[in-house]
Amino acid sequence: MAEPPSERAVTFDRLYAENPDPWAVETSAYERGKRDETMAVLGGRRFTSGLEIGCSTGILTERLAPICERLLAIDVSAEALRLAKRRLDAQPHVTFRHGEVPDDWPKGQFDLIVFSEVLYFLSAEEIAHASALARQTLADDGLCLLVNWTGPNDLPISGERAVELFGTQAWRVAEHRTRPNYRIDLLARELAAPTMAAR
User: Fold this and answer.
1) Is residue 183 assigned to a domain?
2) Would you call 88 exposed, middle or buried from its count of C-beta atoms within 10 A (0-12, 13-18, 19+)?
3) Which of 79, 102, 115, 177 could be joined to 16 by an S-S link, Cβ 3.0–4.6 Å?
4) Range of the domain at 135
5) CATH number, domain at 110?
6) DSSP alpha helices (H): ranges in 46-115?
7) Residue 34 confidence (pLDDT)
8) Each residue of 110-137: pLDDT tens digit?
9) Are 133 and 102 spatial neighbours (Cβ–Cβ below 8 Å)?
10) Which of 186, 199, 25, 42 is nearest to 115 (CA)?
């Protein structure tokens, strides 16, 4: 028997059922600018296997799809995923999965992992766990991208605090950009230094 949806899943399903674009992501000039900045941080690089956590209705997914040979997009809301699948119906290399991170973290290795406007919906423990899972599944030359609203919100965790909890000190910060009301952090794995060969 399938487990009942979590309280978080029920909340987001209700939100998207009432309004398919609850944060005006599709129409807001601010949101369009943030997506442009997000893509600019990636610098035109192409990726073999991308993972987007919290894809919502697929608006950023649509921008990520052309730079990934394969892209897996995950969201807790079945209603949001229904809209995302419709948006990217003609993109066979993009797959969608209904799941709640970190518990439903996918198997495999990725050279791009994106958390855009999602971390502060998790608990502190979940953010730390997601960071550990991202480090474990990120390719050695991969990138992990965090995009976080830094203005006021009605959640227990702010965008700035979410980045702290993600533990960027355990990563190598490849690039950091601060803009009005949001920040972008591009992270890479901190590889262990090579050991000296025995003489």
Assistant:
1) yes
2) buried
3) 79
4) 43-189
5) 3.40.50.150
6) 59-64, 78-87
7) 95
8) 999 999 999 999 999 999 999 999 999 9
9) yes
10) 186
Nearest-CA neighbor of 188 among 172, 168, 170, 176?
A: 172
Q: Note if the bond before 102 is cis, omega within 30 degrees.
A: yes
State the helix-helix crossing angle for 78-87 and 7-18, rounded to 10 degrees: 50
pLDDT of residue 192: 53
The C-alpha torsion from 67 through 68 and 72 to 75, rounded to 10°, is -10
| Tokens standing for residue 25 | 């992501």
Beta carbons of 56 and 24 less than 8 angstroms apart: no
pLDDT value of position 85: 97
Q: Each residue of 143-159: pLDDT tens digit?
A: 999 999 999 999 999 99
- Residue environment code for 14-46, b if the CB has 16+ CB neighbours within 10 A, otherwise e: eebeeeeeeeebeeeeebeebbeebbebbeeee
